[in-house]
């Protein structure tokens, strides 16, 4: 089990993977929006998406878990 | 003359406009969101009205609510500043329909220049050089044909894209083949539209723009250029005037081009023609911003004029009193944008400013609405202030900027001041050699320097 974390505080603008998707290392999985900037979030590891922990529109702090991978 | 203005904006630009209005004895009406109850522009204006919740969508972008406040406050005119509603043709139209003077160009011109493909077409018809490119390309065969026709390197771009997403630089058919399906998929995922188009990729370009003022009575003037090549993530960090790259001859060619472009669309009020300039000095129209620019102070400093004042005068029906050949500049000006962000990673850093100390000297100008206790909200743009210096020449301006940065203190949030120091101290910047590729080309070296400065 591993997690993809938020690299900064902001709103989850877009999640571009779904539960069950295969994710590769370095793949863009979501975009955070903070202070009018869009920051792509990449997965540091390969795996299968088990859960989307923060849905689009939700505010997250730096380090919060966004996506759970198997 | 306009007697009262509602400023449909926030932050430094709202304060900037209010200050000029005060100088002109114009009554000012501010709007503020919940997060901006104690902001400088809220306090500085003669009157201030709560416009909505903290998010821009529910406040500064709420057109109907803003117009309601304008009616309630009984203003003559609305100044949109930059960003937010400044290039929303529909807002300009609504203002005029409601009987308010919109301080900017006509809605039809905003609309025309806001459509990338139409703007390109209009400029090409006017004889203005634009970057070679295509309409949407549907198939890989079309893509390869067009890419070869334009000549590598090219950029394969998402037609509905932005923020650098869905853009790939292709230097060969092989690159195009690899990028085509990937970009199409990414464009569809992120923008709901998989359409792609091709544009010639200009290697190591300069971003140079020209300031236009036109009074709608046949007088169109170009107040020289600003060079804005130092950028990160397509956002400008440092701007200067004049450009260290242009020769007098090329400068005059670009001024002539900007005059032609503005006259072709019968432009009125202040606007900016943005260009890419390649290593050989060839320039291409990129887009026109039909509003005031963030970096307008560097032009003001070397031409010794107030662009906001002239925006208001033109909207009031005044005529520009100069002729193009009469415009003169003095010295060199540089603007540094102070962002609330981690200086190394360039990630946003909202929070509360505990202490702030600004350097003071006759050659230093601040556009800084924050003070100790100001809350920098994640809802808004990361730019919290602008530092502008004027020197007798470029070297003098750089030295003054370095001194000012050393005395600039912000405690409580992270800022990009260490990054600006590292950039300004870099030999390539000092030589005037920075292109838009500067930050990427020297990424490792700059990161090391930023970390050293940050310690």
TrEMBL record, chain A:
User: Could you tell me the keywords of this UniProt record?
Assistant: Biotin
Q: Does the keyword Glycoprotein apply?
A: no
Question: CDD domains attached here?
Answer: biotinyl_domain
Q: Which InterPro entries match?
A: Biotin_Carboxyl_Carrier/Decarb, Biotin_lipoyl, Single_hybrid_motif
What Pfam families does this protein's entry cite?
Answer: Biotin_lipoyl
- Source superkingdom: Bacteria
Q: Which residues form the Lipoyl-binding domain?
A: 1-70
Q: Which NCBIfam families match?
A: PRK08225.1 (NF006079)
Which PANTHER family does the entry mention? OXALOACETATE DECARBOXYLASE ALPHA CHAIN
User: Per its record, how is this protein called by name?
Assistant: Acetyl-CoA carboxylase biotin carboxyl carrier protein subunit
Origin species: Shouchella hunanensis
From TrEMBL, chain B:
Protein name (Swiss-Prot/TrEMBL): biotin carboxylase
Pfam families the UniProt entry points to: Biotin_carb_C, Biotin_carb_N, CPSase_L_D2
Q: Does the keyword Heme apply?
A: no
Q: What EC number(s) has UniProt assigned to this enzyme? A: 6.3.4.14
Any keyword Transferase? no
Residue ranges constituting the Biotin carboxylation domain according to the UniProt record: 1-444
Which InterPro entries does its entry note? ATP-grasp (IPR011761), BC-like_N (IPR005481), Biotin_carboxylase_complex (IPR050856), Biotin_carboxylation_dom (IPR011764), Biotin_COase_C (IPR005482), CPAse_ATP-bd (IPR005479), PreATP-grasp_dom_sf (IPR016185), Rudment_hybrid_motif (IPR011054)
What keywords tag this UniProt record?
ATP-binding, Biotin, Ligase, Nucleotide-binding
Superkingdom of origin organism: Bacteria
Q: Which organism is this protein's natural source?
A: Shouchella hunanensis
The chain positions of domain ATP-grasp read 120-316
PANTHER family according to UniProt: CARBOXYLASE:PYRUVATE/ACETYL-COA/PROPIONYL-COA CARBOXYLASE, METHYLCROTONOYL-COA CARBOXYLASE SUBUNIT ALPHA, MITOCHONDRIAL-RELATED
